[in-house]
Amino acid sequence: MALRERIGVDLGGRRRLEDGLAWAAANGIYYVDMCLEGAPDHPNAPSAWTPVRVAALRSTCERHRIHLGLHSASAVNVAETSPLLADAAEQYLRTYIDLAGRLGAEWIVVHGGYHFTGDYAARRAASIERLERAAAHAERAGARLLLENLNREPDHAEIRYLAHNLEECREYFGRIQSPSLGWAFTVNHAHLVPEGIDGFLDAMDLGRCGEVRLADSHGRYEEHLRPGEGSIDFARMFRLIEGGGYRGHYMMAFGALDDMLKGRETLLRVAGG
Known about the structure:
Blueprint: H1 3-6, E1 7-10, H2 17-26, E2 31-34, H3 51-64, E3 67-71, H4 83-103, E4 107-110, E5 114-115, H5 120-141, E6 145-148, E7 160-161, H6 166-175, E8 181-186, H7 187-190, H8 196-203, E9 209-214, H9 234-243, E10 250-252, H10 257-271
Parallel strand pairs: 1-2, 1-10, 2-3, 3-4, 4-6, 6-8, 8-9, 9-10
Antiparallel strand pairs: 5-7
């Protein structure tokens, strides 16, 4: 598959999925991420997927050769330790896994959650254990989870994401050996930590990578800029990733849909594709 066909679009939760798929088909997009979040009456909410709607969605994806993935919300704390909320965090992940099977989604992007300044160890342990259980459920359901490396927060921030740097990511993947847990490599997040994109690619196993997420950044704080607007060397990134044998898909996640179409052309130009 040509590189152009491997660069997808994260629709987020910004529109009804069927409308997003129609847009993708019209613009030659073959990989799509979507989120189920929003108000209870949001058109993509889990309760909105009737058997008739599910059948139509699967037919659309098959007809247009679109590969669908789900993207859970990083705002939901997978590292929850409160007994009053822990069950909800478990159910949240199970809901995504179960719905992925119904929709024919091929992957689910998940996150490690977040901690506060004084509870790092407890939150990290809860996060790893919860993702271990989710991976076991995914394995039974025939689903695939992709753990995303999240962004570094400023040094003075009270709340910080887990699995944001290389040390933490290696711990998560070292502890969770399930074949149903892969990696979603977000390059603009890696650009925020000292080890950088090169460090992640040197140390992590590209064989576990199921998605490479693309946006630009200046490397100072969380940004999702169009490629060319920040300081990431995407030409070098493509050489390292493609040279490492990766043949999976890329997922653009920045700006509006038209911005991502323009961004795809920039990426193809710098990649020589």
